[in-house]
Amino acid sequence: MVVPISKTLDNLRVLIVDDNKDLAEFYSDLLSLNGCVTSVFNNGIDALTDFKFKINNYDLILSDISMPGMTGDELAVEVLKLKPDMPIILCSGFHPDLSTDDLMKLGIKHFLPKPIDSTKLLDIINELKLC
């Protein structure tokens, strides 16, 4: 069961991308209970297509890195070409090809290792919202 931690994220629009449907729904439930409006996609290609058509409908992207078809870092590169100031949080349980420095060079300021700590995720989102 997901329990709300804060209600400070009212109406923040979050695009969630994870090929693990259960995790994607967990993130959606967590963020929704904390006031966010979420859209969930299970692959980067569909998420990017939606983002292109609704570029101003999202305030934040939360994406897994390791996904088939289009990885989270590839999604981030494409999103940042379209909207360079889009806040993106990438997460992964294991991704040996990317270091934190690599992510920073791509414009990704936040990385969370899986399993994600709910409080840490909400703290980062609150921090991004205040910027």
Automatic annotation (TrEMBL):
Upper lineage: Bacteria, Pseudomonadati, Pseudomonadota, Gammaproteobacteria, sulfur-oxidizing symbionts
UniProt cross-references to PROSITE patterns, sorted A to Z: RESPONSE_REGULATORY
Highest taxon in the source lineage: Bacteria
Record's keyword annotation contains tRNA-binding: no
CDD domains attached to this UniProt entry: REC (cd00156)
4-aspartylphosphate: modified positions: D64
Domain Response regulatory: 13-129
Plastid recorded as keyword: no
InterPro entries, sorted: Bact_response_regulator, CheY-like_superfamily, Sig_transdc_resp-reg_receiver
UniProt name for this protein: Response regulatory domain-containing protein
Keywords, alphabetical: Phosphoprotein
GO process terms (BP): phosphorelay signal transduction system
Species the sequence originates in: endosymbiont of Galathealinum brachiosum
One Pfam match: Response_reg
